[in-house]
Design goal:
- By secondary structure, the protein is mainly α.
- The protein has one domain (about 5-305).
- Helix content is about 55%, strand content about 10%.
- A hairpin with a 3-residue loop joins strand 4 and strand 5 (about 115).
């Protein structure tokens, strides 16, 4: 697992952006070309020549889909009932960018879905070319690999062959995350959309693992250990961003802010190295923290939800029911569309009104 794919939160409703923007000809044709290669799961399961790893992935995916529908209340769809074989171990390269001396996020505007904080490519060279243009304009830029995306019901989302190498928790989180996108999505509210899908994906994976393998199973324990690493890493980046915000908000000159930014990142890199052995995964222990910039930090700000808020809502308002949380999110999304409000603000009001 490369450093750009440390967190399972890096999924996105990317396909509509690919298919409905000015670069529709190249990216849309490539995506539809991949879709044309999809093979139905039923056919692969019936074929004795199907590799055991692919067969196991299909069976697990069917279980997760049923669990997401029946236990969590996510949309019942034909997503993840086909497989596309790829030659590489990820799906697409995505570019995101942020201002160098603030956390002003670069947004690309698309029909149908509105503004999104990323632009995706199926060829790495094209993503790097886009990144080079943005860097030339002064942006902090990140090019990252993504494992999956949701088409929000416009297409039948397939499984990708590289997912056969994933552990049960990782696969479950990906599928539940994307099914959450297909169930609740508010145009122009990328923070809410990603936070909800990220939280539901992780909680749904935990619930499925406990139901499928048992609460004391090694499968659940391994998943929880990896998630603990992820939370610790995200918290470290969040504190780094907080310290940088103090620098950016000061009355210093731009040159002084750049110097302050370099100083904070160097200090945080030294702190990270001093505590790196506390991570269970090598990908975290060896992460080059001295290379971080606003693009990476802002990505975590977008994709890592306020777990205190979402877990508090789950416990205090939803009574521990992930299904109830999803239902309330649907209601908040509908109200947000009618009243042109922030759907997360609606849920926060409900949490504030709940008994402590």
């Amino acid at each position: 697992m490369s450093s750009s794919r440390l967190a399972l939160a890096f999924f996105a409703p990317l396909a509509l952006a690919l298919l409905s923007s000015c670069y529709v000809t190249s990216q849309g044709a490539r995506y539809l070309g991949l879709q044309a290669k999809a093979v139905p799961a039923a056919r692969l399961l019936a074929d004795p020549a199907t590799e055991p790893a692919i067969r196991d992935m299909l069976l697990r995916a069917a279980e997760v889909r049923a669990f997401a529908r029946d236990a969590i209340g996510l949309a019942d769809s034909r997503n993840f009932t086909t497989v596309v074989r790829l030659e590489r171990d990820y799906l697409a390269d995505v570019v995101s960018a942020c201002a160098p001396l603030s956390f002003e996020r670069k947004l690309w505007k698309y029909p149908v879905v509105g503004a999104l904080p990323y632009k995706g490519f199926f060829k790495r060279a094209e993503a790097e070319a886009e990144a080079a243009k943005l860097r030339a304009k002064g942006w902090d830029v990140l090019v990252r690999e993504v494992d999956a995306f949701s088409t929000l019901g416009w297409f039948k989302d397939p499984l990708w062959s590289f997912m056969a190498s994933y552990g049960p928790g990782s696969l479950a989180e990906i599928l539940v995350h994307e099914l959450a996108h297909a169930s609740v999505f508010v145009k122009g509210s990328e923070g809410f959309n990603e936070a909800l899908a990220t939280f539901v994906g992780a909680e749904g994976a935990k619930a499925w693992l406990a139901a499928r393998y048992g609460k004391d199973s090694p499968e659940l324990a391994a998943y929880l250990a990896a998630k603990a690493d992820g939370r610790r890493f995200a918290a470290f980046l969040a504190e780094t961003a907080r310290r940088l915000e103090t620098v950016y908000a000061s009355g210093a000159s731009d040159d002084e802010k750049r110097a302050g930014k370099a100083r904070v990142i160097a200090e945080r890199a030294a702190e990270f190295r001093a505590g790196a052995e506390g991570y269970s995964l090598e990908a975290y222990r060896s992460y080059p923290m001295d290379t971080v910039d606003n693009a990476l930090l802002d990505l975590y700000r977008l994709y890592e939800p306020d777990s205190g808020f979402w877990s508090g809502y789950l416990e205090r308002v939803a009574g521990g029911s992930l299904r109830r949380l999803v239902e309330d999110a649907r209601e908040a999304a509908a109200e947000a569309r009618r009243a042109k409000r922030d759907p997360e603000a609606i849920l926060r009001e409900r949490l504030a009104a709940a008994a402590p």
